[in-house]
Amino acid sequence: MSRSRSRKPRLFRPPTDGDNLRCLRVVVPASGVDEAAGRLWLHEPVAIHEAATDDGRVALLAGFDDLATAAMVAGELPPEWEPTVETAPDDSSWRDNWRAFVEPVEVGRVLVWPGWWTEPPPERHDGLVIRLDPGATFGSGSHPSTRLSLAALQQVLHGGDQVLDLGCGSGILSVAAALLDAAAVTALDIDPEATLVTERNAVANGVGVECHSRSVQAGDGPFDVVVANIGAAVLCHLAPVIVGSIARGGRLVVAGMLSEQAASVTTAFAIAGLRLVSTDEQDGWAVAVLRR
Ligand SMILES: C[S@@+](CC[C@H](N)C(=O)[O-])C[C@H]1O[C@@H](n2cnc3c(N)ncnc32)[C@H](O)[C@@H]1O
Question: Of 8, 20, 84, 115, which has the highest C-beta tally within 10 A?
């Protein structure tokens, strides 16, 4: 069996030699695939391709734009994963072949349905259906941090809330918030491709989302709910500005952090004035809900 996980292209793409990707190859036991993929995703590859090896293990091939990044990541990984760097042509199959492996994702009341499938979602589903095409952005619904964020969003959101989706990627959380009766949804992402894809997915689902290609800044808000699935380092760095954008009594959902990073992230938000409400984990990834 082989499958691919795709993610956004980088904002700044250095020239590559002959338009090749530098691929970091690791080989892990089948039980270690999610941990290895999680470690690789932290360094923002354009995609990760997985394939079974003859000896029953799984080879993960992570494509990077430049040799320096691939080599740096290789040096950080456990030697027993046998990290090696090789070259692969950067053709569209790298970024698009994940489509063949996508499956619908159900989280709470929300069913995420591949937007390019002609087959309609099952009629027996009595919750909300999001028809989503993430294109080259992050947020198909398959990643644990997206699923955790989607679950937490359903817990904290009330009809009529003003919502900020910080790091919107595909717009999956923005569209969910709008379908869950938020009064207004603002989607921010530093990747212009993400805001284009979010706009497209909002239109495809018949909801309005206000998109901007930038990060959160002083003066934004006040929002009743902020959801930010953007990674531990970025969350800690932005904590004071994010807190400044939340209304009194408002809720914050933070994700994109590994379980062992959760304490440092929630501490940064506690210092910035929030109270921790709950945490949850899935496959080594964590989400936290905080309140102002
Ligand atoms: C892990 S993806 C999350 C996508 C989607 N919200 C989800 O839950 O699947 C993180 C997104 O945050 C964006 N991002 C990273 N740093 C950011 C920042 N400082 N401000 C805004 N967006 C940022 C990335 O471009 C990426 O699209």
Answer: 8
Protein residue closest via CA to atom 12 of ligand 1: 167
Provide DSSP, the chain. Answer: -EEEEE-PPPSS----GGGEEEEEEEEE-GGGHHHHHHHHHTT--SEEEEEE-TTS-EEEEEEESSHHHHHHHHHHS-GGG--EEEEEE--HHHHHGGGGG---EEETTEEEEETT-SSPPPTT--SEEEEE--TTSS-SS-SHHHHHHHHHHHHH--TT-EEEEES-TTSHHHHHHHHTT-SEEEEE-SSHHHHHHHHHHHHHTT---EEESS---TT---EEEEEEES-HHHHHHHHHHHHHTEEEEEEEEEEEEEGGGHHHHHHHHHHTT-EEEEEEEETTEEEEEEE-
Q: In CATH, which of 3.40.50.150, 3.10.20.90, 3.40.50.300, 3.30.565.10 is domain 102-291? A: 3.40.50.150
pLDDT reading at 16 higher than 60? no
Domain boundaries, the chain: 2-98, 102-291
Pick 2-98's CATH classification: 3.40.50.720, 3.30.70.120, 2.60.120.10, 3.40.109.10. Answer: 3.30.70.120
Lowest mean pLDDT across 113-122, 244-253, 274-283: 113-122
Find the residues whose C-beta lies inside 6 A of ligand 1.
8, 137-139, 146, 149, 166-169, 172-173, 188-191, 194, 215, 229-230, 234, 256
- Binned at pLDDT 50, 70 and 90, residue 19 comes out as low
* Pocket test residue of 42, 138, 143, 193 for ligand 1, highest count of atoms within 8 A of CB: 138
